Structure formats: C-alpha cells, structure tokens
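Hi U.,

Before I forget, here's the chain from the pilot set. I'm dumping it here mostly so it's searchable later in email.
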Amino acid sequence: MNRDMDQQEGIDWHPGDMPYSRRFGDHYYSNADGRGECEYVFLNGNGLPQRWDDGADFLIAELGFGTGLNFCETWRHWKQKQISNGRLTFVSFEKHLLGKSDISRALGVWPELALFSQQLLVHWSAATSAFVRIDFDDTIALELHVGDVHDCLPGWKDAANAWFLDGFAPARNPDMWSAELMSAVYQHTVPGGSVATYTSAGWVRRNLEAAGYAVEKRPGFGGKREMTVGTRRE
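Structure:
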C-alpha cells in the first residue's frame, strides 16, 4: 500500500502521535488512552475476555478498522488467555484503509502491542483488495471487508458473537449509525450476542433497540459520561 493512500485519507497527527481524520473531523480513538478505551468499551462491554473461558470458537465483528488498535488489543487478550482449542476470527468492515506507515506510527505508541502490530504490518501490503483474510496462526484470523459497509455487510454470510461499533462519532459520520445499518448488524449477530460502543447518543440507542437489542447505558471511558451496550434478544 503506497503513501498516496495515506495522503488521500487525510491524516493529521496531534500531540502524542494521535491520528486525526480530516475527512470526518474526529480522532481515531480516545485522547485519554486508546488502548484503555478498547479494553474498557469493546472488550469489557462485550463481557470479554470472560466469554472465552469455555475455549469455543468466537467471532468478533467490527465497524471501522481504523488503525487496527482494536484488533491488536483483542489479539493480546486472546493470547493471554492461552486458549488452545478455540479459534478467534476478527472481522472488520472499513471503507477508508490507512496506509502501512500511518498504522505503524499509531500503534507504535504502545510497546505492549509490538508483537501483534508487527505481525499485522508484515501482511498489510496484501490488504488492498475488497476482501482479505489473514490467518496469523491456528488460533486467530483477521478478515477485512474493504468498501462501504452498507454494500459489504448484507453479503456477509456469518454472524458475530460480539460487535465492536467503532465508527467515527455519530455527529461526524451518521451513516455508520443509521437504523438500516443497525438492523443489518442485528441480523448478523448470533442469538444472545452482544454489541458495545463508546457513544451514548440517544438516536443510536433507539436504532439499536428498534433493531432488536436489549440496550443499556454504562459509565463511559476517559471523561465520557456514558457508553452503550446491548444484547440480541432471543
């Protein structure tokens, strides 16, 4: 992937190597601590890693791959669990892929992720087509669906045990939180499966509820008052 793609995406770098999207006028993750936000909002919000205790296969789906932070942090927790008889598949839908150099710079902030980010970057030059699957080892795989999620998700044949809803802020990128898309997310969630997101915007919660989730607010991360989690009703 060449540097031109980085420039087209329009990334500014704020203090602390914090990536900022000029396209959406928003940071890629919390100013407080992006890795901490991932653990608090997306992992804990979905009851992870406790739900991995039975060692079964598990599928996580994500709206917005961004820098790959959520994937690498999830991979780190999966490895800490030392699950030998289960497989984690991480599926992410992303319209605007970042270039390798920007991903390297963003993830380089966290030495705890070096083992995982380096392996991701080795394979990143392949992530230029509409669909990419990378099997890192026998226990973890990444699937990238590149394009508009409204086009990609309906044709996806699987269903997730947990969803990370991590598009840019609803006010900045409302299409990523629409009633239509939340309904599609619901249709691709297993019975009893979960969703979690950093936002508590009322219209987003209502869209999730209308789709069929039992929704609740929880205390937010890094100065945010509230976040949202939900469970697919049986």
